[in-house]
Amino acid sequence: MRRTERFPVEGSNSLWQVYRTVSFWKVLKNALVIHIARYTPFLGLKNWMYRTFLGMKVGEKTAFGMMAMIDVMFPERIRIGRDCIIGYNTTLLAHEYLIDEYRLGDVVIGDQVMIGANTTVLPGVVIGDRAVIGAGSVVNRDVPPGAFVAGNPIRVIRRGEEKRGKGGGEKERNA
Question: Residue 23 needs a FRET pair 20 to 30 A away by CA distance; which of 37, 150, 160, 172 works?
Answer without folding.
Answer: 37
